[in-house]
Each structure stands twice: as structure tokens, then as C-alpha cells.
Amino acid sequence: MKLSYRSIPLLFVSLFASAASAFAGYKLVQEPLPNDLMQVHIYELDNGLTVYLTENHETPTFRSEITVRAGSKDDPADVTGLAHYLEHLLFKGNAKMGSSDWEKEKVHIDRISDLYEEHFNTEDPEERARIYEEINKESQLAAQYAIPNEFDTLISALGGSGVNAYTAPDRTVYLEELPSNRLEQWAVIESNRFSDPVFRLFQPELEIVYEEKNRAMDSKDRLIQEKIFELLYGDHPYGSQTALGSIEHLKKPSLKKIHEFFNAHYVANNMAIALAGDFEVEEVIEIIDEHFSSWKSGEIPEFTRPMPAPITEKKAATITYPGEENVIIGFDTAPTKSEDEQALKLVDMILDNANAGLINLNLNQQQRVSSAGSFPYIRNDAGSQFLWGAPKEGQTLEEVEALLLEQLDLLMAGEFEDWILPAIVTDFKKSEKLALETNAGRLRVISSSFGEKKAWPDVVNEISRMESVTKEQLVAVANKYFSKPYVVTYRKNGDYTPPTVPKPKFDPIDIDRSKQSEFVADVLAIESDPIEPDFVEKGTDYQVVDLANGTQLYYVENPANDLFTLSKVFEMGSSEKRKLSMASALLDKSGTTKRSASELKKAWYALGADFSFSVGNHNTSLGVSGLEENFDETLALYSEVLHESVGEPDVLKELIAIQLKQKEDAMKEPSVIFNALRNYARYGEESPFLTALSSDEIKALTVDELIGELNQLSKYKHDYLYVGQMPVNEVAAKLNKLERTKIALLPTPERVQPKLHQPQSNEISYVDYETAQSQIRIEFPGGDFDESELPMIETFNEYFYGGMSGIVFQEMREARALAYSVWAHYLVSDYADGENLVMGFIGTQADKTVDSIAAYLDLWDEMPRSTDRFAIIKNSLDNQYRVSKIGFRDVLGAVKSWERLGLEGDPREHRYEEIMDASIEELFSFYDSEIQGKPKMISILGPSAAIDETKLQEYGEVTDLKIEDIFVD
């Protein structure tokens, strides 16, 4: 059965007539397997395009992932970063989308491409500078016809979300989520998107990639990872080049080579479309055949680079970076689809499964290191196993290395208990079930399988194959790979000066938001049956049952699988009880009156259960999750931990030493420093980073007072949240037995929340720190919480920010290329008596700091007015609300959040009605009174050598701060 054109306007027929005439048919190449929990259908169109379809009717949406079997390893050695460039550029549209007049724009686009080729082939710096000036001028001429981010604007208008892409070594993936009634529009958009793309606005996008590279160079974890990959994989692209490319190659891109890469790899027989969501498979494959049969197949380039050479002798390297030291050990193992792949994944879990692995029990639990773990890296051309560790105070990285190798010795000697293997298999089964609850989780499996060229039955049966692996086989595999030489990288505390990515001359482009291509107008004109909003109803979506002693059970039935979660929640946290976080840390290292700490970890893992003690600023949760069949045993163990935990003074002494070392290291970590800085700007001396436990207070802690914190906690008012398959009355009966006290529970302590600072004029708090990229926050108080303002706040957030198609993104990133990461949000308080906070963020190359602040302040204080944009965002919000059904695992979290705001029932219903009735005049009236011209608190972390503080003072009074000013001693 072919779909008719009945629901499609006649004016649109011509846009996909060529695709319709190219129908070539399809075949089912893999019918759903009986044991496939996703019931995946796999088709192949006659042009070679692979299609994976899996139905999931939990929410009225579907997710799309389009995967190309080409990634960073396929970059030419002299043009690294090319695949990643292409990923960015495939959001720019083509002749039909992204241009107001393609024929006029094309003249300039062609000239820009030629100029970049001259630039690529020219070595003389002065000549390259001259060519770049021409590129800059030509880019301005081309930009007058460009419609920036029209793809994202269109997806947003249709109610889509999660528009993104990523480049991995072996694949590139493009993804988004849309309402289930937009399948026809999705097919039209995506089939067009990958047809003859136009790489417009390349110059600002190049600067954005520079910013992404700057951010990467500020990541201590990425630095050590790249170094060990280099040692392990040598000249193979896994080791010799990164997805972002080298700085040298970033300076001289080639549009011609990017086009060649696209034409070679982006062919139908090298790509796959995967959809998961609320649809019928038989209808969707017809839509896909109708629109994607026009894609051409081609001869796929053969990968000819040499494979990684075996490691024949130990190799070591050292890098320096301020703060936490770390060591990573790497062994070369086997690539995907090898006969040892499943055994290697099991081996990794025996080493580190977060609970009862050798590293978990022997190193982390016994606090022989600050922290440690392992992870496998199994790719198409090579595989490896990594072990990592961070030292305690006075411990060398070489000592940590030796401790990690000891765990491998135990593994190779078979010194692990027999019960651990079936427990690991159970863990894999749990993870699989959780992943399949969401569209994203389902497609993560599918995209990986296609990128790794795995037959689907092998993917479905992987856990079954794991079940058949014996202990003897695992030991043999461990000896096969870990008795060989290895590579090791040390990250030591020391100075680090990030390499600089040169800032080329770039003139901002003008953006006309009123422009829209005929293609987009026609897509938006396609009619579809509306989806009715689905709001949460008490009694239908959840139940609340009174328990003994004034507590309540919030209950949601799990319709998907046999995994339950249970939480005991308190409306108080570290702000009200300052020692709770340390109590949680001690409990993690402690046992009970019946079991040692290690025995307790083993007991949890053997049950297929997890225990958590989560402490937030104003809430605490004692949670447990696991298999419904083991509920009683899990609840008994939960009760044992809550009521019979014991701590050891020696354990606490070591824990304190580790905590103090981690605190010292954190004060050298840019992201942590920036967090402390912006909190200081908000609250001054009342910042959580200054009111937290001091080092002296931590040193003075005792076991009795920390275990006492746990015992005292249960005497306060609390509730239970349960999601599972057990009937509500049975859960209630079991929890009533768990409650041991008959004494009236203590009322929740008054919430401790400092008031936001109220600046009278712009204030700039600045910390000088050596980074490639400055981090900037612009914030101001948004007044007391008022539910009546929520509809207009949501409208403002969508109008001003609104993701990649929003004003902030377009002006700061697309028009000015000032930031890779930039966003804005009017953040609403979590509590009825709390304050709102308006905030924006910029991550920008340090020498662009002042320009970025100037441009962003201008946007905040002179928000552009556009009736066209307002119409688009209202349509977007309409579609978002229509598919905003809350998943079963998230219902209770939403209900509790509404209760904290003093609201009864789901407030989204009335918010939706008011948003749909709102006018642009109301939006700008709200903007004028609540946002425009408000004095700002500006926080900046970046290097003084690249920031002109004299110019900075033009935008506010600057206060230079030291790190010790914003952290407690």
C-alpha cells in the first residue's frame, strides 16, 4: 500500500515529485526476532539504504537517527577534522532550504569555495591573509541571501527537540525527536537535507569549530585520553588524529575536500535510518520508501590506512595540568565482532561494575586510592582496555599504577568469586531493559550496531552469548591480552598553557529573521491530525496512599518491565543539614552489624539491586532499585542499611584525607572554580562554597555524629516514591513494616536559602585563570516566584533562546561567531517562597571576552522584535505541549516539584491555554518590566593576558577575585 497525496497541499507536490518518481521498492531483510525486546524490523531500499524501525508507544513522539559509516578515522591525514566540519555544515541546508535566492547566492558560494582552495594551497602567510580578506568580503555578500539555522527553525516549529549530531571515529550520527504526527514532514525534510548540501556560512562556522577546539583543550580528561590513544594506536587515525582536527588543519580548511568526502561516503548504501516511537511500522516504511528512494548509492571508499601495531614494549608519557593527578593504563585487545568481544566486556565488569568489581572492592572500598575504575574501548579496527586511578595525598602515580596491575593479576589468576558472572549478566539485562524504555536508548543500540557492521541477531543475542562464557574462558581471555606490554599516561599536577587557535578577521553578518524559503513554507503547510495534550491526573497516572506515622506512598505502575525503584525522600539537604554529604560518603564505605562494607556491596550486586544516598541542597533521597522478583530481599537489605549501619574510625580518617585532597584538587579545576565564582556573584559571603564545611570542620567529624545523621534523618517527615509492578496495597503493607518508629515524625526544618544579591548597576566578578576559553555568566534576579508569570516566562525562554534557531544562538554564534556554547534561561524557583534567576552563558575564546559581553548585553537590553519569530515560537510551544506526555518514570518527580511550588495538580494545562492566548505585545510588556535594563551580575573566568580589563570596565565595575576568596578554607 502506497500513501496517497490526499493530506499534502498541491503546491508541495512538485517539491518531492522527483523522489516520488524514483520509487524503487524495498525488502524486509530482518523480521522481528522472538527474543528481541524492541521487535526491530530491518528493511533495505533498492538503493541500498538500511532502515531500522521499532515501535514504542509510551509517548506520542518518534526519534530519528541517521547514521553514516564514516567518521573521524576517515579524515584524510592532511585535512583532519573534516568529518566533523561536515557534520556542522549539514545543518546549513541546500539549494531549497536555507536560502532566500539560491541562484544569486550560488555565485558567491562558488567563489568562496574557490578562495578557500587557494587559501589551502598557499603557504605564504601574507598571501593567505590577503585571500582571507577576500573570503570575508565574499562571505558578507553571500550572507545577504542566507537564512541561518532554517533547518532548526523548521524542526522547532514542528514541535521537534533534541536536534543534534556527533562524529565518532567510525560513524557520524544526526538525530532529532518529533511529534508522531510529523512523520511525513520529517521524511520530506531529511530526504532533502542530504541531497546536494550547500556549505553556506562556512566562515562563521569555522570560528565555531575553533571555539569547540578551545573548549576541548581546557579539558584535562580529553588531554590525557588523546595522549594515551596516541601511544596505543600510533599512526592509525584512532591515535594520530582527533575528531576536532589539529590546530594546523583548522587554519586551512578545504571546502573542495569536504564536498569530496560527502560525495564519497554519504551514499545510500553506506547509511542507515533508524526510527523509534509511536507509529506503525507498515506505514512508516512506505513513507521512507516514498521519500528516500531518490538517494543515490555509490562505491564506498576502502579504508587503506595501516592497522594499529601490537604493543611490544611498555610506552609511557606524561602531561601536566593543574589539580587532580591521574594515571591511565591501556592494553590493546580486540576489535568489534571478534570472538572475544563478549568475554572482554565481562572482563571489564569483573574489574569495575561500580559495586563489586575487583577495583571497586579492593581499591575504592578499601580507600587505597582516591578513586579508580576501568572501561573498554572496542572499535571497528582495534580494541583496548583501560584502567585508571587518582592518587591519595602522598601517593605517587606509579604506586596507583601498581595497585591497578595487581587487580589484573587477580583476574588472570581467576581470583574472583563464581557468583559474580551471573550477577554481571543480570546487570547487563537490567541496563538493556532501562535503555529500551526510551526512544533514545533504543536508537543508541541500533546506531551502534549499524556503525559497527554487526548482524542484528548477533546484537540481540549478545547477552545470551555472555551467559555461556565460563570462568575458565574469561581467565584465558584475560591472560591472552593482559600478560602483554602496555602503555601508560600520567597526568601530573603542574602548569598548563593551552595552544592558541588564531583568531582570523571576521565581520559579523546581518540576520533577517523575516526570511523563509519556499521549501520551509510548503513543509509547514502540510496538514496533519493534531495530537491532544496529555496531562498528569491523580488516580489515573499515579496514586497517593497514606502510610503509618503520617508518611505517604506515591505510586506509579511500571507498564514496561520488571524493574522497580523505591525512594525515601526528605525535603531537606546539605543547606539545612551541613554534615549530610559526609554522612553519605561514610555510609558508602561502611557495613552493618551483620555485614562488612565489602560483603554489603556484594549483597547488593548479587540481588541485581542498587542503593543510593543522594544529598542535594534542599532534598535528600535514600533510594533502592532492582528486580521486582527480588523486592522482599532488596527491601530487607535496605532496612538493614537504614537501621543497622556502623562506621569505623579508621575508615572515616582515610575518607577525610581523601575528601580534603579532592577538595584541594577541585580548587584548580576550571569548571568548579567557575561554579564557585558565579555563586559568589549571586550570594556573596552566603555562597554555598563558603558556607560548606571547612577543612577544620571536616577533620573534626566523628563516626558517631555521621551515623547519627543517618539515624536522625528517618525521624523527620518523609514520603516514599515507588515505580514498579507490585500492586499499590502490597507496597504500602511492606513499607508500613519498614517504618519502625511510632513516635510522631519531626517537622521538616525551615529551608536555608540565601537571598540573591540585588545589584544597582552592572557588576563584574573576575578570576584570572589560564584557559583557552573564557567562561562567562550574565545573571540578575528575576523576582519572587509567581505562578501567574509562568506562561510568559516560558514564552520568553522560547522567543529569546529557543535552542539553535533562537535569537541568542543566531546572533552570538551564527552572525558573530563569538561562542561555541551560548544559552539563556529565565530560571523559575523550585519553591513557592523562592526567587527566580535570569541567566545567560557564553563560552568563548579568551581574546573575544569583551566583544562577547558587549554583544550579549546588547541582546539582553535590546531584544529584537519580530512578529514572524513570535508566530513560529507559539506554533513550536503548541506542538511541544501536545507531545509533552510525561513518561512513567518521571511522573512522581514532576508531582513532587509541583507540590514544592504549592500547586495542586498538573499546572501545564492552564499554562498551555494562556500561552496560546498570549500576544507579542504581552511578551514585550513582560520583557520591558522584568528584563530590559536590569543591572547584571557578570562572572568571568579566563586569562588576564588575553582580556583587556580597561575595556571590560566599560560594562561594569570589575572586582578581581582570588580563588581563596570564593572557597571556604
Automatic annotation (TrEMBL):
Entry annotated with the keyword Zinc: yes
Species of provenance: Pelagicoccus albus
Domain (Peptidase M16 C-terminal) ranges: 255-423, 725-871
Signal peptide, first to last residue: 1-24
Cited InterPro entries: Metalloenz_LuxS/M16, Pept_M16_N, Peptidase_M16, Peptidase_M16_C
One function term, GO molecular function aspect: metal ion binding
Keywords for this protein: Hydrolase, Metalloprotease, Protease, Signal, Zinc
UniProt record similarity statement: Belongs to the peptidase M16 family.
Record PANTHER family: NARDILYSIN, PROTEIN YHJJ
The protein's name in its UniProt record: Insulinase family protein
GO annotation, biological process: proteolysis
Domain Peptidase M16 N-terminal: 51-99
